Amino acid sequence: MKTLTILFCLSLAFLTAGLTRGAEARLIAKVDLSSQSMTVSDNGKVLYRWPVSTARKGYRTPTGTWSAKRVHRMWHSRKYDMSPMPYSVFYNGGYAIHGTGAISKLGRPASHGCVRLHPANAKRFYNLVRKHGMSNTRVVVQR
């Protein structure tokens, strides 16, 4: 009986350790509001660092950590005159990382709160999220 109890406890420990590791995100998009940049890492290895545009004066990009919630190859903002949002990765309600046509404004605040990227970079990020899965993707927005 003692051996059986020990085996059960060891099995439970290994199972729990496996679940903990599985809960960690592989793909991380870290948005830095102060530098207006986004760094994308896969399993701790930096893949990309891109300029972004976040909320301009009068709007806000919330800080925090979220998992990706949904993706759309093309989305149109219902709130802002059906503006196109190519390669959207939504992470917090209506907040998303997406491509923009306002490329000249990247690197400084210009959005209504979303994180804007060059369309080619938005496509790369979108494809990475689809590859790794939304549950394995984290979006971290910090000052």
TrEMBL record:
Its cellular-component GO annotations read: extracellular region
Signal peptide (UniProt feature, chain positions): 1-25
- All copies of domain L,D-TPase catalytic, residue ranges: 27-142
The GO biological-process annotations, alphabetized, read as: cell wall organization; peptidoglycan-protein cross-linking; regulation of cell shape
Identify the catalytic residues: H98, C114
Q: Tell me the keywords, alphabetical order.
A: Cell shape, Cell wall biogenesis/degradation, Peptidoglycan synthesis, Signal, Transferase
- Coiled coil stretches, renumbered: none
Recorded GO terms, molecular function?
peptidoglycan L,D-transpeptidase activity; transferase activity
User: What CDD domains does the record point to?
Assistant: YkuD_like
User: According to its UniProt record, in which pathway does this protein act?
Assistant: Cell wall biogenesis; peptidoglycan biosynthesis
Similarity comment: family membership: Belongs to the YkuD family.
Name of this protein: L,D-transpeptidase
**Species lineage:** Bacteria, Pseudomonadati, Pseudomonadota, Alphaproteobacteria, Hyphomicrobiales
